[in-house]
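>> received
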Amino acid sequence: MAQDSVDLSCDYQFWMQKLSVWDQASTLETQQDTCLHLTQFQEFLRKMYETLKDMNSNTIFERFPTIDQLLAKACWNPFILAYDESQKILIWCLCCLINKEPQNSRQSKLNSWIQGILSHILSALRFDKEVALFTQGLGYAPVDYYPGLLKNMVLSLASELRENHLHGFNTQRQKKISLPMSAVVCLWLRHLPSLEKAMLHLFEKLISSERNCLRRIECFIKDSSLPQAACHPAIFRVVDEMFRCALLESDGAPEIIATIQVFTQCFVEALGKENKQLRFALKTYFPYTSPSLAVVLLQDPQDVPREHWLQTLKHISELLREAVEDQTHGSRGDPLESWFLFVHFGGWAEMVAEQLLRSAAEPPAALLWLLAFYYSPHDGRQQRAQTMTCDLCLSIKQVQVKAVLGHLLAMSGSSSLSARDLQTAAGQGTETDPRAPAQQLVRRLLLHFVLWAPGGHTIAHDAIALMAHTAEITYEIIGFLDQTLYRWDRLGIESPRSEKLARELLKELRTQV
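>> returned
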């Protein structure tokens, strides 16, 4: 690394002297020398960019005090600028010098100067005498040369931007080419394939990234510009439909559900920033569900006093049950629509389990129904519609949830609790398929218990070891722990002991997969 730094410094001095000589490019000899060394100079510029891109503007000028002079000399040399590859690399280097948030007048002036140089590069395609002389020397008429040069430059920049996007380029450094949000919205409204491609790029990133890391998923989603653009209902409906397809095709995969919830959270935040009052009615975003239900679910739990959380959950349960029963009896839509809406705001569902386990009172029937409803549609794509309309199935799950809760609450004060006792009392092993919704729901209750109950803390590691007997269940538990910590952080829930335990378990499980 040290040798590379020395070599770059030596090259820097060499090319600074060369550019000073080429600055007087009026003789045939200097023009020939420029063309002779142009490939080497382009390679130097590429090395320079690789160095600059990892530095901020102030650090760049500390190491290369005359970098602005070097780039300016290159930008004003018509023989260098005539090559689209040179133009592209010069633009990259100049963008590295920009202060994203100028702190003083000197930095603001530098930004203005850079903008002027960039304008010059782009306007260098005009018919000036020197470039016209150069094109004639190459045997091209200006009318043939300029359109081709412009096309090559645009294609080259577009290719670079696409490559950076697909390989997860650091967007804090990238930002070389960006469109205003209004332009992005106009593009996606008028050209559906480009919106679909943006969604596919997002899915590609999510698939190739580490599983069960909601912080990273949130960054990917925000960088995609999709939540901001989705403030327009037409774009929201397309994006939401693609999420719905992914959810159905994955048979209700927890990772897809978590991604939908993070996207919805980012979308609601963008909606709040864009409008003090909604420009479009909620019905345009969620056309098949009750507006009053959508209004309640759109409330951020952060904005609801904690002492009112239980009452809000009961209200959600009542509205949701009314909507499901109404849809079951022939109204527009089907119960799956209500469930899909609830999935968007699944943070409320996880709060249900916590509220039930942290309360010593008789579990409210409304909360039992809400928890059973949240896990009911996981019974498989073909059976889902039947399951959703079957009140008996929901009633059975309510009874199961109530029974498990009763066992867990009875054991919460035990001083001699073991992991095996917990497993037996919770009825683990009664289902043959560990992916069955009843099994998933029981595991969630067990996980909430070990995080919240004092007796649960002491047996947490042993209990997790018994549950995580397959890779699939291990990933499910990792997802639960990551999602729980993410939600606690957002809601400002402070429980140092539970948080420490959750982080320990998460770290331990991630080393196993």
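>> Residues 2-166 form one domain.
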